[in-house]
């Protein structure tokens, strides 16, 4: 930092002046990197495992009827989705991962869509909205509005209807972002189910 | 093109680093007393932010391709520290007039969390190279906007009678609260302009 | 020995009240303002910083004779950044809820002025034990300030107390402390809703953070003055949190008043 400023008190040889600090710094960095690598080895499996569990739990929460889920697929437009199977092995719906742009960045939403095209539930994979405002999207009151809705949805500031979601007071952006993500999922469902027929 | 405009507005207004994201509070409170020091500090921050992004973005690609993403924090801060040093040396040698006006602020910037913050945010949000650069520029300008505005506010405070127990830092913080409140008014501007669609 | 013990105790306690890093030295304000929307978040941030602070103080104190003076700042940064990354990985793996609520401010502990400040001002010059105690005291002081901010903002902003406690304690298993997960005053006192008393959401917004910090600062200033202490002030250069890093570089810039490097402003800033 202040290399230039602290002039050496006595004239030292070039080697001492440049090589010693460089070697020491290199050693410290090397040891640090080694330690971090070791810890990373331990924690990365735990983190991966935890993320897997979280996704699995979210999938179950958005589609309670399903017994098993397929591996992750990607639709033509790149949307990630999982196919859900009922106990008898028939396809009972799809789970989509879509995103909308909220006030505090991207909101990643998992949407379950039943075989009949109606939403079976939504869950948030990542959400970083304003506490007390946008974060209220995580409340069941808001999330449950989506259940049973189909087609494409709008957002209303006053009243919920069959095609409209009642926005959270003071967090219209968040409500719109979530609804947009759900709409993407529904659009993707329409395409997939169209292909299947 | 639209998205770049959105990024600019985000960095300047809705995601203002100081007033909405709480990044770079220390210089905001410390050096905002005079208009010219605020301007100098801001210019130095813009410069370092953009250059730091320009350098760290490719480095991050390398780290991620080699499964070393866990070293991001440590590598980024070292790169920023080295970069600041380098800018200082180059400026001192070849850009004397610029060094005279910005030089003294440079060492202060290494630990300005706004710089590391913007670099980390760019990575977290998966912005492309140009998007990252635009966002960094906008974030830096947003920092500058807050600094310069606040220098004006502080000038007014100086000449006023304030309750004795609020003198000094407390009244400064309360003024910051009001300025930050005014920025809340920009919420939704980007979404309503349809720039993210 | 007795005197030594006394000074050890002093090194430990000074960070908690007399030189509280947040309230008295005005360091690490970004984190204090940003994550304290609830008590649990503030506490989580405080603990993370304390761990990094104690560990880096110990290591830097151990290495103080090995690290050449010229490269001490980069060396400190490497040590601190390593511990931050370490804490980051552990939090991600074992307390994911905290990782989510702290977000980008977890890696940003690296640039928390308190840590580099203590390394430069204390650990780089003192023995291991004192440095560890100094770090612990400062860490507790920081945690206390974060908790104070968190309690106030959570109570006024959401009408709750200690919500999210279980997600923080999940590392110790499920339902620790009898499953206590905070109090929602709107559930305890249902009449609040009937009176249409809404929580003040603004306290959770950035603006409320600045406001709470300002009021807390006024109160601590008052208390300090009663005890004959001084007000907490930000002096552009002297107590500027970053002065630690710029070290000699900045001091040179401050001292070289005859250089053309805008000496007038510099003096102004230092005088503030």
Tell me about this structure:
The complex is a heterotrimer of chains A (197), B (197) and C (272). Chain A has helices at 14-62, 140-143, 172-196; strands at residues 68-69, 73-74, 80-85, 91-102, 105-114, 119-126, 154-156, 164-166. Chain A has 197 residues and is α+β, with helices and mostly antiparallel strands. In chain A, a hairpin with a 5-residue loop joins strand 2 (73-74) and strand 3. The longest helix of chain A is centred in the first third of the chain and has 49 residues, at 14-62. Residues 1-10 of chain A have low confidence and may be disordered. Chain B has one domain (2-192). In chain B, helix 3 crosses helix 4 (72-94). The model of chain B has no long low-confidence stretch (mean pLDDT 88). Chain C has two domains: 2-226, no CATH class; 234-272, no CATH class. Chain C has a two-stranded antiparallel sheet. Classes of the chains: A alpha+beta (197), B mainly alpha (197), C mainly alpha (272). Chains B and C meet through helix 2, helix 3, helix 4, helix 5 and helix 6 of B and helix 2, helix 4, helix 11, helix 12 and helix 13 of C.
Number of extended strands of chain B: 0
Distance between the termini of chain B: 12 Å
- Poorly predicted ranges of chain B (pLDDT <50, ≥5 residues)? none
Helix percentage range of chain B: over 70%
User: What best-fitting shape of chain A do the alpha-carbon axes yield?
Assistant: elongated
Rg of chain B computed from alpha carbons, rounded to a whole number of angstroms: 18 Å
* Uncertain spans of chain A: 1-10
Name the beta content range of chain A: 15-25%
N-to-C terminal Cα separation of chain A, in Å? 67 Å
Order of helices and strands of chain A: HEEEEEEHEEH
Structural class of chain B: mainly alpha
């Amino acid at each position: 930092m202040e290399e230039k400023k602290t002039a050496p008190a006595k004239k030292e040889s070039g080697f001492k002046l440049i090589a010693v600090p460089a070697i020491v710094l290199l050693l410290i960095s090397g040891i640090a990197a080694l330690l971090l690598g070791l810890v990373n080895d331990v924690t990365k499996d735990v983190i991966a495992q935890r993320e897997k569990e979280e996704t699995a739990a979210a999938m179950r929460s958005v589609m309670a009827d399903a017994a098993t889920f397929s591996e992750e697929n990607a639709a033509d437009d790149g949307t990630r989705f999982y196919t859900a199977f009922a106990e008898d092995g028939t396809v009972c719906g799809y789970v989509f991962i879509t995103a909308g742009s909220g006030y505090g960045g991207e909101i990643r939403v998992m949407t379950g869509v039943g075989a009949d095209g109606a939403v079976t539930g939504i869950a948030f994979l990542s959400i970083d909205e304003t506490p007390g405002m946008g974060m209220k999207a995580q409340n069941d009151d808001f999330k449950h509005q989506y259940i049973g809705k189909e087609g494409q949805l709008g957002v209303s500031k006053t009243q919920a209807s069959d095609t409209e979601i009642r926005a959270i007071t003071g967090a219209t952006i968040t409500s719109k972002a979530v609804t947009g993500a759900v709409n993407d999922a529904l659009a993707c469902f329409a395409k997939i189910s169209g292909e299947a027929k | 093109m639209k998205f770049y405009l959105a990024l600019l507005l985000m960095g300047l207004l809705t995601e203002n680093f100081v007033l909405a994201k709480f990044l770079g509070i220390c210089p905001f409170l410390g050096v905002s007393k005079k208009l010219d020091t605020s301007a100098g500090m801001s210019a130095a921050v813009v410069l370092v932010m953009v250059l730091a992004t320009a350098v760290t973005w490719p480095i991050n690609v390398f780290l991620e391709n080699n499964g070393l993403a866990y070293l991001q924090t440590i590598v980024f801060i070292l790169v920023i520290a080295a970069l600041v040093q380098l800018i200082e040396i180059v400026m001192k040698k070849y850009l004397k007039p610029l060094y005279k006006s910005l030089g003294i602020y440079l060492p202060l910037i290494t630990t300005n969390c706004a710089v590391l913050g913007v670099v980390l945010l760019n990575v977290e949000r998966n912005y492309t190279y140009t998007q990252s650069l635009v966002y960094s520029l906008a974030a830096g300008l947003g920092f500058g906007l807050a600094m310069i505005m606040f220098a004006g506010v502080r000038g007014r405070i100086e000449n006023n009678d304030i309750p004795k127990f609020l003198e000094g830092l407390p009244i400064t913080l309360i003024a910051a609260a009001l300025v930050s409140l005014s920025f809340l008014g920009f919420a939704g501007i980007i979404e309503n302009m349809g720039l993210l669609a | 020995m007795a005197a030594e013990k006394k000074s050890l105790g002093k090194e430990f306690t000074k960070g908690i009240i007399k030189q509280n890093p947040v309230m008295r030295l005005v360091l690490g304000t970004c984190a204090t303002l940003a994550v304290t929307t609830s008590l649990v978040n503030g506490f989580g941030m405080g603990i993370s910083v304390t761990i990094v602070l104690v560990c880096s103080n110990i290591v830097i104190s151990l290495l103080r004779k090995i690290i050449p003076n010229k490269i001490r700042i980069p060396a400190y940064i490497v040590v601190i950044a390593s511990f931050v990354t370490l804490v980051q990985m552990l939090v991600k793996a074992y307390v994911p809820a905290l990782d989510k609520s702290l977000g980008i401010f977890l890696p940003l502990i690296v640039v928390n002025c308190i840590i580099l400040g203590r390394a430069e001002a204390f650990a780089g010059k003192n023995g291991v034990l004192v440095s560890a105690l100094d770090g612990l005291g400062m860490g507790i002081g920081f945690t206390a300030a974060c908790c104070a901010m968190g309690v106030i903002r959570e109570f006024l902003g959401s009408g709750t107390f200690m919500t999210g406690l279980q997600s923080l304690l999940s590392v110790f298993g499920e339902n620790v402390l009898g499953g206590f997960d905070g109090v929602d005053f709107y559930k305890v006192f249902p009449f609040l809703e009937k009176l249409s008393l809404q929580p003040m959401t603004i306290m959770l917004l950035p603006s409320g953070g600045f406001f709470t910090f300002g009021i807390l600062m006024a109160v601590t200033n008052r208390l300090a003055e009663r005890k004959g202490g001084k007000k907490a002030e930000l002096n552009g250069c002297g107590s500027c949190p970053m002065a630690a890093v710029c070290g000699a570089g900045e001091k040179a810039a401050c001292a070289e008043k005859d250089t053309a490097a805008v000496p007038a402003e510099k003096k102004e800033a230092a005088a503030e």
